[in-house]
């Protein structure tokens, strides 16, 4: 035996785990095993070693990214820049304070100037200082906001979608000129008061808030419930029934208007950062010039809801994405039985199920917004996306919670809040049943509301 061979043999014997070898010999025929391994090609040997090392177990996990089909790549470079600007704002200005404000049930008013500087308010509206961008981009913005904090995306949706949308769709030219530029800059904050304590899903069937015209003035009486932002907004759009004609009309009511009172709804278990109000209108006098001049019936109110429902579907996607991404990061980090829990098959099954639904939802809302940009958004298309996305989001957030074990119920692990918030998104802008009835009516031609 050559000298070098001898030293190799000694080195092998020195490193040999004799007791391990003896144990192995009790289980398998060692001679046979060595002869089989000897006959293996070099590449098969490498594959086997990799498998025995646990495959990629020791490799750094890839970056967490909830946009699995790279839908962001469909944005133009300019749109992508806006999306990333919003992401940066949400991650640096909002994320660090989000649990604190949720817990306190207060709104962080101090973020509004920086949010306004993003120049995304009234994003899709044309003129009046608004950017006139695509609905697809608007969807991505809603997703970015909700991915970090669904309360902030809700606040923004009320301002940019419901309140500005009401004036844009139903206001006179003078009203648009008066309000929209300042609302776009977020110097004027708005709210949208449709739901009532006794009339929720049935708003299309008649409102109990009444408006009576007296000369140049309208007198409003009634109550509105759940009205987001209304505790601090400068104006609230109040929808009321004209006692003389029976038609639904919209009014721009200013916050210091005598007879207007907004009380914060306490003890919410979802979207706690959003300030929802119970509004009481007692002989609240509003000038005719503050009546939305192009709102003649509930059909006009519906036009606004159709537009904002699409954004709510995107918000649900963002909520699901935030929960998924946080859960995946947790699974890549948390160890049990000496391994990261993300390496367990049953955990991967849950993660993949979440990603499957998330990706399907993203693809759906992306197409929905394309349809909107093409001028082909219908009530039923918006409603279908709202139903599916809010339903699947509930499922995704609950799986995320499950994957965090006990930590899934602690706010600081950034999943519990998504679980709670998904409940509110599920119900507002039309419940599952109401949106399903809208789709059902469209596909069967028969209304089944009552
Ligand atoms: C956090 C939050 C924010 C909100 N923000 C606003 C806002 O800014 N402005 C605003 O105007 N409103 C707002 N809302 C109100 C919201 O739109 C309503 O809660 C929603 O429309 C449902 O009305 P409701 O809560 O009165 O439920 P209800 O109408 O009482 O419904 C109760 C249940 O009955 C079911 N149901 C009702 N009718 C039928 C039917 N015909 N067939 C089958 N099932 C039916 C519903 O689906 C639901 O499951 C908000 C709500 C929440 C929770």
What does this structure look like?
It is a single chain. The chain has three domains: 71-184, Butyryl-Coa Dehydrogenase, subunit A, domain 1 (Orthogonal Bundle); 190-297, Butyryl-CoA Dehydrogenase, subunit A, domain 2 (Beta Barrel), CATH 2.40.110; 299-444, Butyryl-CoA Dehydrogenase, subunit A, domain 3 (Up-down Bundle), CATH 1.20.140.10. α8 (135-148) packs across α11. The chain is of the alpha+beta class and 450 residues long. It has helices at residues 3-15, 18-27, 30-39, 42-52, 77-94, 98-104, 112-117, 135-148, 150-170, 173-184, 298-333, 345-373, 379-403, 416-427, 432-444; strands spanning 126-127, 130-131, 190-193, 210-214, 217-228, 235-242, 248-254, 260-264, 276-287, 335-336, 339-340. The structure holds flavin-adenine dinucleotide. Flavin-adenine dinucleotide is lined by residues 158, 192-195, 200-201, 226-228, 271, 276, 424, 427-431, 433-434, 449.
Keywords:
Butyryl-CoA Dehydrogenase, subunit A, domain 3; binds flavin-adenine dinucleotide; 3 domains; alpha+beta; 450 residues; Butyryl-Coa Dehydrogenase, subunit A, domain 1; elongated; Butyryl-CoA Dehydrogenase, subunit A, domain 2; two-stranded antiparallel sheet; seven-stranded mixed sheet
């Amino acid at each position: 035996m050559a000298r070098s061979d001898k030293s190799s043999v000694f080195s092998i014997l020195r490193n040999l785990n004799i007791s391990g070898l003896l144990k192995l010999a009790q289980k398998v025929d060692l001679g046979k095993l060595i002869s089989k391994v000897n006959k293996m090609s070099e590449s098969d040997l490498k594959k086997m070693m990799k498998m025995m090392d646990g495959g990629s177990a020791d490799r750094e996990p890839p970056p967490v990214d909830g946009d699995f089909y790279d839908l962001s790549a469909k944005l133009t470079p300019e749109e992508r820049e806006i999306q990333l600007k919003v992401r940066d704002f949400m991650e640096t200005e909002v994320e660090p304070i989000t649990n604190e404000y949720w817990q306190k049930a207060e709104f962080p008013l101090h973020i509004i100037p920086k949010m306004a500087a993003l120049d995304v308010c009234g994003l899709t509206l044309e003129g009046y200082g608004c950017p006139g961008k695509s609905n697809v981009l608007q969807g991505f913005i809603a997703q970015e906001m909700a991915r970090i904090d669904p309360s902030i995306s809700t606040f923004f949706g009320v301002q940019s979608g419901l309140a500005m949308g009401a004036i844009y769709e139903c206001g006179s030219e003078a009203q648009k000129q008066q309000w929209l530029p300042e609302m776009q800059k977020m110097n004027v904050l708005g709210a949208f008061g449709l739901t009532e304590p006794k009339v929720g899903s049935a708003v299309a069937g008649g409102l109990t808030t009444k408006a009576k015209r007296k000369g140049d003035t309208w007198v409003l009486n009634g109550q509105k419930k759940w009205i987001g932002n209304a505790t601090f907004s400068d104006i609230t759009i109040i929808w009321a029934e004209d006692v003389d004609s029976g038609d639904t009309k919209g009014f721009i009511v200013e916050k210091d208007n005598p007879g207007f009172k907004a009380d914060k709804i306490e003890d919410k278990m979802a979207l706690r950062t959003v300030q929802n109000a119970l509004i009481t209108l007692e002989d609240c006098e509003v000038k005719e010039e503050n009546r939305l001049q192009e709102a003649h019936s509930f059909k006009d109110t519906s036009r606004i809801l159709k537009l904002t429902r699409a954004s709510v579907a995107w918000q649900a996607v963002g909520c699901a994405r935030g929960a998924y991404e946080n859960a995946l990061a947790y699974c890549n980090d948390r160890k049990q039985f000496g391994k990261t829990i993300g390496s367990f098959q049953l955990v991967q099954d849950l993660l993949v199920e979440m990603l499957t639904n998330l990706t399907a939802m993203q693809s759906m809302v992306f197409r929905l917004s394309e349809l909107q940009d093409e001028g082909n958004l219908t009530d039923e298309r918006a409603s279908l996306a709202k139903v599916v996305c809010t339903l699947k989001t509930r499922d995704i957030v609950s799986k995320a919670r499950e994957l965090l074990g006990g930590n899934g119920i602690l706010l600081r692990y950034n999943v519990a809040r998504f679980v709670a918030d998904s409940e509110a998104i599920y119900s507002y802008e039309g419940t599952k049943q109401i949106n399903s009835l809208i789709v059902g009516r469209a596909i069967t031609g028969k209304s089944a509301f009552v």
